[in-house]
Amino acid sequence: CIAFQHRKPGKGNTVMITKLKNVSDGRVLERTFQVGFKLEDVRVERRPYQYLYQDPTGYIFMNQETFEQIPIPLHQITGAEFMKEGDIVEVVTDTSDGTILSAEMPVKTVLKITHSEPGVKGNTATNATKPATLETGAVVRVPLFINEGETIQIDTRDGSYLGRVNA
Prior knowledge:
3 domains, 5-stranded antiparallel β-sheet, 51% strand
């Protein structure tokens, strides 16, 4: 449950208005429940895993404690386009049956720009941006003053530029 509100209208029964996060796909849902409705608890566990490589079965991760390797399909990984070999992600599993629910990149990551057109001086009165290709192959929008070869910080949730990183 992300948020909830207990509401008693003038007429009618009391209801609970909620915002819930779907643990299997990460979507946020708004639901209204009548008094007395019971939800089933889901116990989840978060563990650090290291991204090793990609193969036909999915992305292969290694448990940092047991060194067990597991495949995780692309659709279960948030921020996968910003992931490079060796990155640590948080894998969320259902403790009742061991099912992998998701893998989450850290909110911020640091990547190098492999290709970017030179910025054109002049039109800087507005917040001008240009496309830049990162070492993972992802394309993000960066300010005109950022050049090829520089290292930048990215928000993995939406791919937005956060700032330049000094080496």
